[in-house]
């Protein structure tokens, strides 16, 4: 039996989609989480000196999207054909652009920099998400299955729906984007994923 070990920080962050792929696939994995101080002691063990890192029977793979693509291919969530897979990857890459745009918010949230978190939420976090939702909504309007690509779940659905976690801090996150809200509700109602979300560690991000 293959042993999977997923190493990250005590956060959802860049690793959450990797965890969720395991969850919806019903595959066991070792969920190793370090505090920032603990990670400093293990940094040199990582291929690029950072996390997440996936170990498959001891072989290490770094970078969150590389891990997600590998797991999605292994478990059937990459897209059913080459074109669908390319579309899934394009959505994931656009989501990575979103994460770059909202990085200033997270730097303050995690205490790496000083700043006005409320202002960053209003001026950076929400506008960046609404820009992203504007790009992604046509995928849902043009695909009647309720999924972003094709007629079944892909890892792009997991990645995009995770934004709903932030509605506690930002109740207006989905204002003007009913398709995005409905999509998040659909994906997060998958029984295994719903249970995971309800029981996963409560972290700042």
Automatic annotation (TrEMBL):
Gene Ontology MF term list: glutathione transferase activity
TM segment ranges: none
Cellular component annotations (GO), alphabetically ordered: cytoplasm
Record Pfam families: GST_C_3 (PF14497), GST_N (PF02798)
Gene3D superfamilies in the cross-refs: 1.20.1050.10, Glutaredoxin
UniProt KW keywords: Transferase
Domain GST N-terminal: 2-79
EC number(s) given by UniProt: 2.5.1.18
Biological process (GO), any one: glutathione metabolic process
Reactions performed catalytically: RX + glutathione = an S-substituted glutathione + a halide anion + H(+)
Domain GST C-terminal: 81-205
Family: Belongs to the GST superfamily. Sigma family.
Protein name as it appears in the record: glutathione transferase
Classification of source organism: Eukaryota, Metazoa, Ecdysozoa, Nematoda, Chromadorea
């Amino acid at each position: 039996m293959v042993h999977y070990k997923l190493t990250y920080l005590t956060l959802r962050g860049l690793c959450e989609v990797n965890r969720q792929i395991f969850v919806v696939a019903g595959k066991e994995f070792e969920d190793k989480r370090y505090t920032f101080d603990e990670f400093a002691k293990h940094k040199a063990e990582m291929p690029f000196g950072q996390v997440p890192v996936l170990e498959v029977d001891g072989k290490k793979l770094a970078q969150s999207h590389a891990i997600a693509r590998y797991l999605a291919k292994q478990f059937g969530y990459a897209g059913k054909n080459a074109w669908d897979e390319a579309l899934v990857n394009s959505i994931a890459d656009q989501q990575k652009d979103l994460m770059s745009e909202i990085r200033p918010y997270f730097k303050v949230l995690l205490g790496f920099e000083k700043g006005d978190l409320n202002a960053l939420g209003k001026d950076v976090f929400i506008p960046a998400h609404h820009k992203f939702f504007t790009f992604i909504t046509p995928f849902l309007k043009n695909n009647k299955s309720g999924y972003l690509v094709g007629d079944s779940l892909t890892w792009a659905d997991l990645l995009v729906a995770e934004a709903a976690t932030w509605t506690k801090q930002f109740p207006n996150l989905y204002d003007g984007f009913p398709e995005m809200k409905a999509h998040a509700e659909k994906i997060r109602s998958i029984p295994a994923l719903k249970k995971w979300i309800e029981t996963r560690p409560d972290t700042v991000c």
